[in-house]
């Protein structure tokens, strides 16, 4: 007689989240890598400069890049642009000492999924890495409102002159529904619960929508939703 598998048994077969840590301070970098390893993550690589981060990330293929902004050789935002541009499935969580608005917005515009200050606790960091791996935006409290405000400012900028380019492909009813909830700031988990679908299905709808609209990240997706009135504002 066989017994049904338990949740714990199912969890044990799942691949751990692959993480790479990039920071120019060796002691800090090693401490973060150690904390993540002890929390069950697979730390596949570390780097202490921008060019090395790009090179090693392409070789190690992490799920999440924990990235400092102030790096020798190449700034963190450029590292983010290069890697997200060539590896759309990569998620970037910026872990920085800077809470300057300009740094936060530049990181998000470069493709970062989240932004956490280095004052965060180990628990906050591990929770943020898991959320980032799932595609959910994560921000140190107080920064999320700043980013959403920037979405709206961008949407109010004059649109470029219309060209003879063909119209964007039509979204399905479900893709439009998911996009509307993304624009309202809901996480993928919350969207899945709201629509009674799986987290993976939500991710697939978002990826399909990005492809159809020829957009690259959540920032551009939310801007599109606001411009077309899908955010319900």
UniProtKB/TrEMBL annotation:
Entries under Gene3D superfamilies matching the protein: 3.40.50.2300
Keyword Phosphoprotein: yes
Pfam families (alphabetical): GerE, Response_reg
Record-listed 4-aspartylphosphate modification sites: 68
The keyword DNA repair is assigned to this record: no
HTH luxR-type domain residues: 164-229
Keywords on record: DNA-binding, Phosphoprotein, Transcription, Transcription regulation
Domain Response regulatory: 18-133
Full protein name: Response regulator transcription factor
Annotated organism of origin: Streptomyces salyersiae
């Amino acid at each position: 007689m066989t017994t049904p598998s338990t949740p714990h048994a199912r969890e044990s077969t799942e691949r751990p989240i692959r993480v790479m840590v990039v920071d120019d301070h060796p002691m800090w970098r090693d401490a973060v890598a150690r904390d993540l390893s002890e929390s069950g993550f697979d730390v596949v690589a570390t780097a202490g400069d921008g060019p090395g981060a790009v090179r090693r990330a392409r070789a190690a293929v992490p799920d999440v890049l924990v990235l400092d902004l102030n790096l020798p050789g190449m700034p963190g935002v450029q590292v983010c642009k290069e890697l997200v541009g060539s590896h759309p499935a990569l998620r970037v969580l910026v872990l920085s000492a800077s809470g300057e608005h300009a740094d936060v917005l530049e990181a998000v515009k470069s493709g970062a999924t989240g932004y956490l200050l280095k004052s965060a606790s180990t628990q906050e960091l591990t929770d943020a890495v898991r959320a980032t791996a799932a595609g959910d935006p994560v921000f140190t409290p107080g920064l999320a409102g700043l980013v959403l405000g920037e979405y709206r400012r961008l949407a109010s900028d004059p649109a470029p002159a219309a060209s003879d380019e063909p119209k964007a492909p039509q979204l399905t009813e479900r893709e439009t529904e998911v996009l509307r909830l993304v624009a309202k700031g809901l996480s993928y988990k919350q969207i899945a619960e709201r629509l009674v679908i799986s987290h993976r299905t939500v991710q697939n709808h978002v990826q399909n929508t990005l492809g159809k609209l020829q957009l690259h990240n959540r920032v551009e997706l939310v801007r599109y939703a606001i411009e077309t009135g899908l955010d319900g504002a």
